[in-house]
Amino acid sequence: MDQAFTGELKEYLVTKLPLIAFTTLLLACSEAPSVSQSAPDTSAAAPAAGTLPFTVTPVADFQAPWAMTFLPDGRMLVTEKAGQLLLVTADGRTSRAIATLPVDAAGQGGLMDVVLAPGFAQNRQVYLSYSATGAGGKGVVLARGTLAGASGAETLTGVTTLFQATPFVEGDGHYSGRIAFSPDGRFLFFTNGERQKFEPAQDPKATLGKVLRLTLDGKPAGDPALTSRGFHPAVWSYGHRNLLGVTFDEAGNLWEQEMGPKGGDEVNLIRAGANYGYPRVSNGDHYDGRPIPDHAPGDGFEAPKVSWNPVISPGGLMLYHGAMFPEWRGDLFIGGLSSQALVRVDVQGTTASKGDQWPMGARIREVEEGPDGAIWVLEDGGRGSAGRLLKLTRS
Which first-to-last residue range defines the signal peptide (predicted)? Predict the structure, then answer.
């Protein structure tokens, strides 16, 4: 059983299995953390040659990796579900843990996103998200630390909590926790999932099921129009489900993707103050069979730009800027979990449409652009196997 469940499987288990049996299953899925890695195991087969428009090169193995980002010198930071932040050499051959966060790794929880601060070259700050326990249950936390020390001997120091979801609730799913900075570097956008509780996505006082806007120090800086209506002061948009990707394009538009319920995975263009409908409307239905009305013109809700049914179970989200694949510049790339695919979405201004869906033979959790324009993906590493780091280059 995968240690990081897809939204589909997790909700099925929640609704179909007794609580005691489900708790036992979650405990059985935990694995010992890994604090260092070596050269990758290339014995697992990559997708068959000739079926993809790029060459796939295995680079490294990790234990349930969740996110990654590149340092200016080409090295990488990689998060692992159990709480380790790894510093990885540019060739991927060696890595070591530079911090261990106090995560609650049950179910879909763990150490999640990692993003460099605006001005990283000067301030050396790194932002992280993770799931934690607290009063009322569990929730997603935004934290910041500083990469300090001589090159090759760095550690992440001074890790401080900047913001946490409101309220903390029981359960182990739909934390979300993705981070993006506004193009001017003034604001941080942070996704909070609705934690499989449905109605908090429409609750103005909760941050659950929302895109939030914060200052770089984690202070609420949401949409003023919503704040004036009594919303939590961090809320930028609402009516979301499990938001597992968020990114800006070169024109400053904010794009987001999220897992739908039973059907209806989405890519959305995020507008300040907009209501994206969940659970009032969706292109999918509830797992217990109850229908959810579809998005319809004039219903007062913001419809997705693209949706999938059958689902792709979207993981990470990346907007491609590079020169290696100029034909894809400005397009969105999504890691597919249950679909075991890399998915491209064609973006034209503020419209989007389905592009390619390439089979990768494994659950894809994260996708990032490398310094040379190569596309890098992290496999999820479910069913007890290593999650590989793959580099995709032009064939």
Answer: none
CATH number, position 376: 2.120.10.30
Output the CA torsion sign for 169, 173, 174, 178.
positive
From 174, 232, 240, 295, the catalytic residue: 174
Q: How far is residue 36's CA from residue 357's CA, in Å, rounded to a whole number?
A: 33
Q: CA separation (Å) from 317 to 15, 186, 248? A: 28, 21, 10
What is the pLDDT averaged over residues 85-114? 97
pLDDT tens digit sequence for 218-274: 999 999 999 999 999 999 999 999 999 999 999 999 999 999 999 999 999 999 999
With respect to residue 390, please indicate whether it lies within any of the assigned structural domains.
Answer: yes
Note down the domain range covering 342: 7-43+54-394
> Does a structural domain hold residue 315?
yes
pTM of the predicted structure, to 2 decimals: 0.89
- Please tell me what DSSP assigns to residue 220: B
Residue 174 annotated among the catalytic residues of the structure: yes
